């Protein structure tokens, strides 16, 4: 049978080459010799199509993002503290379990998934054991303090690991039936991770690493159980995968650098003090055809302001002082048309133009010096508050698809916000009528332009 299969393959190839007038590129003598020897033709699988590469790609990206954001975790928490300092909602304690409950609800309702109930439970239990070992061994070795200072077991996030393990469980069992199950499961997991950050229980790197651990734990759990059963599912032969409409609709998590242009905060005379910031958020689009769709994003960005060093006239007594301005933060949302073009089944270009709203965070200006007799060695002198404003955004992105459902996207966006910033100075300045009149009427009309450059983990549905 092997020789017949090889012969059939050779004849088919020869026919194809004849049709294209490229028969000369085939070495017929080698094919005949191969057939005579009884050997089979080995076809090498491209690296990114190898099964283990596809399964490990998403966790690898999440672990890399956790490492990349480690040095920025304090700045990211500052954004949370300035926008939502009193946020407290314990939905994340419960939402983490909903994908797994969905699996068992569907199975008890008689909806066929990849596996029958017993095998699915065995795969799930194995995944949880692996996840528990990974999370707890790292937690009590790294001993990272939580943002709220409660314990030294912050890294990685156990809630997020559980949520993504459960989402991957739902994806494994029912993503093959309908991609909507996968989208719903991973959306619930993402909201769980976001809740851990908003509740001030975890740093962003904790959440990213927890997500990666949750996904890889489920992949390993299924890998080992599949080896025992010697196949990849009980019901694969009776399930027909729903491929969807082949439109490039997607949901994505994005993270990148934010770069202010030359006129950023120019009126406030801080344009030469701005530093490169960061951006993070969610983006998605629904396509009505292969080319056109409508989408939007919710993202936050923060720009640190470099301290300005000054020396007072009596510097011998007071030493060096720094005027410190808290970072400038924006929380924006927009919606608009999206255009997509596929160069191949692996590479996709997306263009967009959105318009929307940008909320801003108030900030403080203070003098910092070791000679200031306060616990933080800081003396507040002013506050600033940019007004919420219209935001428009345009951008382009290039996606490499590891498979039809997952891709890694390099994106760049241009953002413009026109906002008025008003400065209010401290009570000590208000006591001086001249300074109060001169300083407390200061407003700066800023044209805030910045470019973002980063990566998205893109899930298609």
The whole-number mean of residue pLDDT values reads 80
**CATH fold naming of the largest domain:** Porin
Separation, N- and C-terminal Cα atoms: 41 Å
**Helical content band:** 25-40%
CATH class of the largest domain: Mainly Beta
Series of secondary-structure elements, N-terminal to C-terminal? HHHHHHHHHHEEEEHEEEEEEEHHE
Which structural class is indicated by helix and strand composition?
A: alpha+beta
- Count of individual helical segments: 13
What is the spatial order of strands in the main beta sheet? 1-2-3-6-7-10-11-12
Domain Phosphatidic acid phosphatase type 2/haloperoxidase: 122-222
InterPro entries: OMP/PagP_B-barrel (IPR011250), PAP2/HPO (IPR000326), PAP2/HPO_sf (IPR036938)
Protein name: Phosphatase PAP2 family protein
Organism: Chryseobacterium gallinarum
List the defining traits of the structure above.
single chain; 461 residues; alpha+beta; Porin; 3 domains; disordered N terminus; OMP/PagP_B-barrel
Description:
The protein is of the alpha+beta class and 461 residues long. The protein folds into 3 domains: 2-37, no CATH class; 52-229, Vanadium-containing Chloroperoxidase, domain 1 (Up-down Bundle); 250-460, Porin, CATH 2.40.160.20. Helix content is 38%, strand content 31%. It has 13 helices and 12 strands. It has helices at 2-19, 28-37, 51-68, 73-83, 92-95, 98-108, 117-142, 158-174, 179-198, 204-229, 315-318, 427-430, 433-439, and strands spanning 250-260, 277-287, 292-303, 308-311, 320-325, 328-342, 347-360, 363-368, 378-386, 389-403, 406-425, 443-460. Strands 1-2-3-6-7-10-11-12 form an 8-stranded antiparallel barrel. α3 runs antiparallel to α10 (204-229). Mean pLDDT is 80; it is low at 1-26.
């Amino acid at each position: 049978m092997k020789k017949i299969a090889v012969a059939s393959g050779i004849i088919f190839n020869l026919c194809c080459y004849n049709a294209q007038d490229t028969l000369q590129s085939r070495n017929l003598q080698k094919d005949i010799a191969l057939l005579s020897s009884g050997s089979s033709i080995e076809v090498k699988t491209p690296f990114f199509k190898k099964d283990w590469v596809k399964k490990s790609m998403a966790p690898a990206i999440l672990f890399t993002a956790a490492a990349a954001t480690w040095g920025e975790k304090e700045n990211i928490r500052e954004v949370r503290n300035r926008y939502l300092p009193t946020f407290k909602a314990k939905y994340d304690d419960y939402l983490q379990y909903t994908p797994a409950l969905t699996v068992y609800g569907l199975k008890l309702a008689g909806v066929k998934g990849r596996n029958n109930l017993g095998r699915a439970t065995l795969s799930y239990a194995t995944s949880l054991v692996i996840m528990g070992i990974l999370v707890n061994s790292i937690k009590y070795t790294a001993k990272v303090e939580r943002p709220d200072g409660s314990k030294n077991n912050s890294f990685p996030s156990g809630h997020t690991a559980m949520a993504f393990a459960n989402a991957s469980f739902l994806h494994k069992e029912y993503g093959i039936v309908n991609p909507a199950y996968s989208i719903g499961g991973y959306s619930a997991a993402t909201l769980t991770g976001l809740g851990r950050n908003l509740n001030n229980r975890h740093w962003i790197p904790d959440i990213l690493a927890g997500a990666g651990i949750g996904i890889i734990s489920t992949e390993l759990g299924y890998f080992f159980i599949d080896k025992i059963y010697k196949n990849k599912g009980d019901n694969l032969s009776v399930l027909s995968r729903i491929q969807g409409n082949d439109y490039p609709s997607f949901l994505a998590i994005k993270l990148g650098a934010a770069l202010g242009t030359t006129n950023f905060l120019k009126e406030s005379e801080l344009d030469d003090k701005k530093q490169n910031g960061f951006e993070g958020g969610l983006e998605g689009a629904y396509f009505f055809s292969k080319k056109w769709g409508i989408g939007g994003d919710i993202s936050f960005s923060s720009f640190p302001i470099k301290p300005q060093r000054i020396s007072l006239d009596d510097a011998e007594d007071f030493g060096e002082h720094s005027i410190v301005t808290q970072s400038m933060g924006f929380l924006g949302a927009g919606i608009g048309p999206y255009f997509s073009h596929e160069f191949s089944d692996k590479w996709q270009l997306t263009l967009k133009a959105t318009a929307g709203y940008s909320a801003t965070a108030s900030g403080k200006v203070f003098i910092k010096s070791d000679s200031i007799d306060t616990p933080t060695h800081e003396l507040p002198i002013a506050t600033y508050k940019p007004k919420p404003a219209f935001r428009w955004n345009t951008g382009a992105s290039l996606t490499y698809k590891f498979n039809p459902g997952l891709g890694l996207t390099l994106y760049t966006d241009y953002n413009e916000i026109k906002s008025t910033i008003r400065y209010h100075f401290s009570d000590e300045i208000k006591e001086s009528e001249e300074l109060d009149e001169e300083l407390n009427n200061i407003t700066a009309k800023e044209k805030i332009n910045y470019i973002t450059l980063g990566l998205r983990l893109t899930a298609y549905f």
